[in-house]
């Protein structure tokens, strides 16, 4: 079995109110030096067999059709051990 991770993040030009809320809360909790926060989603998929090019192409399709909104989000697919 292989584990594939899909990270989904808002596109840079899209406002991220959740990220801004976290950024505003950090100094109130005593953390300093954080100049920006973007909040996204992470999906971990366990797939049968090896993470072949065909399997990764299918994961890309999953990300485009279900896991992300391509109008406002970017995604990245990677294999982890």
TrEMBL record:
Gene3D superfamilies assigned: Phosphoribosylformylglycinamidine synthase subunit PurS (3.30.1280.10)
One GO cellular component term noted in the UniProt record for this chain: cytoplasm
Predominant subcellular localization, coarse grouping: cytoplasm
Keywords: ATP-binding, Cytoplasm, Ligase, Nucleotide-binding, Purine biosynthesis
Protein origin, superkingdom: Bacteria
The EC number(s) this enzyme carries: 6.3.5.3
InterPro entries cross-referenced by the UniProt entry: PurS, PurS-like_sf
A Pfam family assignment: PurS
Reaction(s) catalysed (UniProt annotation): N(2)-formyl-N(1)-(5-phospho-beta-D-ribosyl)glycinamide + L-glutamine + ATP + H2O = 2-formamido-N(1)-(5-O-phospho-beta-D-ribosyl)acetamidine + L-glutamate + ADP + phosphate + H(+)
Function: Part of the phosphoribosylformylglycinamidine synthase complex involved in the purines biosynthetic pathway. Catalyzes the ATP-dependent conversion of formylglycinamide ribonucleotide (FGAR) and glutamine to yield formylglycinamidine ribonucleotide (FGAM) and glutamate. The FGAM synthase complex is composed of three subunits. PurQ produces an ammonia molecule by converting glutamine to glutamate. PurL transfers the ammonia molecule to FGAR to form FGAM in an ATP-dependent manner.
Complexes and interactors: Part of the FGAM synthase complex composed of 1 PurL, 1 PurQ and 2 PurS subunits.
NCBIfam families per UniProt: phosphoribosylformylglycinamidine synthase subunit PurS, PRK05974.1
Name listed for the protein in its UniProt record: Phosphoribosylformylglycinamidine synthase subunit PurS
Origin species: Nocardioides scoriae
Gene expressing this chain: purS
């Amino acid at each position: 079995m292989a584990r594939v991770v899909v990270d989904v993040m808002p596109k840079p030009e899209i406002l991220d109110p959740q990220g801004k809320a976290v950024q505003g809360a950090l100094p109130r909790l005593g953390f300093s030096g954080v100049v920006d926060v973007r909040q996204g989603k992470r999906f971990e998929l366990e797939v049968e067999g090896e993470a072949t090019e065909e399997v990764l192409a299918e994961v890309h399709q999953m990300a485009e059709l279900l896991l992300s909104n391509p109008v406002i989000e970017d995604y990245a697919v990677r294999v982890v051990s």
